[in-house]
């Protein structure tokens, strides 16, 4: 058959003839069992595809746009096609996933999560000189000036690794409230300024006007910030009062069904808040104060990754792109609307598609950053991160029926019995009094956190916390329904001696503080001293009389 192919056509040009000869030799060689040598093509080599795996907490709307932007950029290493596989997993699964050894980068989820990863030795330091140079530039020209000066934009190691950088903030993020001013005005309510304002009984309605997210990885920061700012017991009490005033839902996005249409206030992340403000005339996004919850979405290289140089090069290139002005410009896309880490991004918006509000975004971003009063301190929060979230769910979501009754009774007590500011403070302290066996003190919370392996407290402990909370709430309901000026909810003036009252002024109370128990102590000590003095005088007089007699 090979000869037939060779002589198939007699009149062929030299080029075609050469090709036919080569084909004939190839077929004959195959027929005789020989191994022909084929010279490689001298044309352009085919590009190889390199895939990297990125562990993330971001939504697909964000990372798909950023991936496409990266692929179209000059940051992709020459000669490579790239593919980024995003693995969007809950934070509790990050450690075992990184331990499995096939993750190149971790991205998003908040600085608290990344500090946890760093403490568990799951991150690699940044070694690329271009990335380190960009961090230095941003530090000097962006981060060390203005309202975000105190925001942690990158994290160093500890001990002998203190000079190395382990994660870098790639997006500025905040937690706040979407507020419908018109709705609040109809109800004769003022917009909240501080987180504790949401705990006021006046915000209670049978059809709640406040919506809050349960103790998820992102909203837990809100509840911990309240505890950090007001102290362990009062902080838990304020959290309970906010929960009692609210509808509690899961996730970061408000559900789109019936009971949620009546909400005038709800918690959310900044991107969702900006969207509501730009699309609804009466709604604004606000970061409450005391403290403000402003942070970053870090990116970091992970331990135990595959030792493939191409993969490492692509991972480094993606980080460079993400920190660049070009990469940051994609955050302005209408489907993302996240706050960039650099202001020069607004001078380079050519990559943004289908966005109508670019001119308005700087105003929103800067208002958020300028609203900072005091930032949350996350370092200590790591010590009870998981146990605190479980306790919140047990004593608030688990006992929400009785907690709502507490707030309804409190609102009625204010209206009918002139419940005082001091009584409201004592109510919060009573609600926040820890329960459990052992009692859920800060120390116990830290011990439970150390011994947790799955990120969850055992169900039997959760049930006990809920049961004990329901009993406590019912006792408080009974006291509220029979309120008098002497009702103190089991909290003495001495218990609230050094507490700044978020429900009103402290001036009157501070005067009372001198009269009780300090004044009582002064009187008692004075009486004791008087008795001793009289006794001494009497004794001295007797002794002198005896001497004179002698």
What is the helix tally?
A: 19
Tell me about the largest β-sheet. Answer: 11 strands, mixed
What structural category arises from helix and sheet content? alpha/beta
The CATH topology of the largest domain comes to D-Maltodextrin-Binding Protein, domain 2
Q: Total strand count, please?
A: 11
| Spatial gap, N to C terminus | 156 Å
Q: Judging by the overall fold, what is the CATH architecture of the largest domain?
A: 3-Layer(aba) Sandwich
Q: Name the beta content range.
A: 5-15%
Tell me the domain tally: 4
What's the Cα radius of gyration? 34 Å
Q: Sketch the topology as an H/E string, one letter per element.
A: HHEHEHEHEHEEHEHHEEHEEHHHHHHHHH
Low-confidence stretches: 1-44, 507-515, 542-547
The geometry reads as: globular
Q: Could you walk me through the main structural features you see in this protein, from its secondary elements to its overall organization?
A:
With 550 residues, the protein is of the alpha/beta class. It has 4 domains: 2-32, no CATH class; 50-172 and 294-370, Periplasmic binding protein-like II (D-Maltodextrin-Binding Protein, domain 2); 188-263 and 379-481, no CATH class; 506-550. It is 46% helix and 12% strand. It has 19 helices and 11 strands. It has helices spanning 2-6, 14-32, 60-71, 94-99, 111-119, 129-143, 181-186, 220-230, 232-244, 270-279, 309-323, 325-329, 361-370, 385-397, 400-417, 421-431, 442-451, 459-481, 507-549, and strands spanning 48-56, 80-88, 105-107, 123-124, 154-156, 165-180, 210-213, 246-249, 265-269, 283-286, 294-302. Strands 1, 2, 3, 4, 5, 6, 7, 8, 9, 10 and 11 form an 11-stranded mixed β-sheet that branches. A hairpin with an 8-residue loop joins strand 5 (154-156) and strand 6. Helix 6 (129-143) packs parallel to helix 11 and helix 14 packs across helix 18. It is globular and about 95 Å long. It starts with a helix and ends with a helix. The model is unreliable at 1-44, 507-515 and 542-547 (pLDDT under 50).
């Amino acid at each position: 058959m090979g000869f037939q192919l060779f002589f198939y056509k007699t009149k062929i040009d030299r080029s075609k003839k050469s090709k036919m000869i080569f084909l004939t030799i190839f077929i004959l060689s195959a027929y005789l069992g020989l191994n022909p040598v084929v010279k490689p093509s001298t044309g352009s080599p085919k590009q190889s595809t390199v895939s990297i795996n990125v562990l993330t907490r971001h939504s697909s709307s964000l990372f798909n746009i950023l991936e496409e932007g990266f692929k179209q950029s000059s940051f992709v290493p020459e000669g490579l096609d790239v593919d980024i596989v995003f693995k969007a997993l809950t934070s509790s699964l990050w450690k075992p996933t990184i331990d499995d050894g096939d993750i190149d980068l971790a991205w998003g989820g908040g600085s608290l999560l990344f500090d946890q990863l760093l403490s568990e030795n799951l991150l690699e330091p940044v070694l690329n000189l271009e990335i380190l140079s960009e961090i230095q530039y941003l530090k000097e020209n962006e981060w060390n000036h203005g309202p975000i000066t105190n925001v942690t934009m990158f994290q160093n190691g500890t001990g002998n690794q203190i000079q190395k950088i382990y994660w870098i903030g790639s997006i500025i993020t905040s937690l706040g409230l979407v507020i419908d001013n018109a709705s609040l005005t109809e109800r004769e309510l003022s917009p909240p300024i501080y987180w504790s304002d949401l705990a006021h009984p006046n915000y209670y309605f049978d059809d709640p006007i406040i919506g809050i997210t349960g103790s998820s990885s992102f909203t837990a920061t809100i509840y911990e910030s309240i505890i950090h700012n007001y102290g362990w017991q009062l902080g838990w009490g304020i959290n309970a009062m906010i929960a009692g005033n609210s509808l509690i839902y899961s996730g970061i996005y408000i559900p789109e069904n019936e009971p949620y249409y009546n909400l005038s206030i709800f918690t959310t992340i900044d991107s969702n808040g900006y969207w509501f403000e730009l699309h609804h005339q009466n709604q604004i996004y606000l970061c409450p104060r005391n403290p403000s919850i402003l942070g970053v979405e870090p990116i970091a290289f992970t331990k135990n990754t595959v030792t493939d140089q191409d993969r490492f090069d692509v991972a480094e290139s993606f980080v460079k792109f993400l920190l660049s002005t070009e990469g940051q410009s994609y955050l302005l896309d209408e489907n993302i609307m996240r706050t960039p880490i650099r202001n020069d991004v607004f001078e380079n918006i050519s990559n943004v598609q289908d966005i109508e509000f670019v001119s308005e975004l700087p105003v929103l971003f800067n208002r958020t950053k300028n609203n900072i009063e005091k930032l949350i301190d996350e370092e200590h929060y790591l010590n009870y991160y998981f146990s605190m979230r479980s306790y919140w769910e047990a004593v608030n979501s688990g006992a929400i029926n009785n907690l709502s009754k507490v707030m309804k009774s409190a609102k009625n007590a204010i209206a009918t019995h002139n419940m005082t500011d001091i009584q409201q403070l004592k109510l919060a302290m009573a609600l926040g009094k820890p329960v459990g066996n052992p009692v859920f003190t800060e120390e116990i919370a830290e011990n439970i956190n150390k011994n947790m392996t799955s990120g969850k407290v055992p169900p039997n402990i959760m049930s006990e916390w809920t049961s004990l909370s329901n009993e406590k709430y019912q006792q408080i309901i009974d006291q509220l329904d029979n309120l008098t000026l002497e009702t103190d909810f089991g909290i003495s003036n001495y218990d609230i001696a050094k507490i700044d009252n978020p429900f009103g002024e402290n001036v009157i109370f501070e005067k009372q503080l001198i009269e009780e128990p300090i004044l009582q102590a002064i009187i008692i000590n004075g009486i004791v001293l008087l008795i001793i003095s009289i006794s001494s005088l009497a004794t001295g007089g007797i002794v002198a009389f005896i001497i004179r007699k002698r």
